[in-house]
Amino acid sequence: MIAKRVDSPYQHGRSRDWLKFKCERRQELVIGGWTDPRRTRPGLGALLLGYYSDGDLVYAGKVGTGFDTRTLEALARQLTELRTPTCPFTRGAPPTGPGVNWARPELVAEIAFTEWTAEGRLRHPRFLGLRRDKPAREVVREEP
Predict the structure, then answer these.
(1) How many CB atoms lie within 10 A of CB 113?
(2) What domains does the chain contain, in order, with CATH numbers?
(3) Which of 26, 62, 87, 132 is deepest in the core (most CB within 10 A)?
């Protein structure tokens, strides 16, 4: 969304008279796994996220931004304790192969994103924090 001063003519580039606002949505999602970090990043690369639908944990995408170093390291410790050899997602197509790790779906993350794609994935997700007040089994997709 763009906002501008009524009396301001068009200006190429940034100014205080023309402002750009990004509209974003928020959703709680269950963490079902993570990817290994690359290069010098500590802890983990991205979280693998999902929501419950008719008893199935549906893969909704991954998020790899919104973390500081302390959060990455804390999440890596928590997820290592929840590690499991089998994929918890029963619908969708999560990534597989080397560098992908599965976790018991017990942690709930608050995620900001721009929209759902046609494939049911998050577009431009950003990690906001963990939700300790909501059980993972209660997490459903809030909007179609």
Answers:
(1) 21
(2) 24-138 (2.40.50.140)
(3) 62
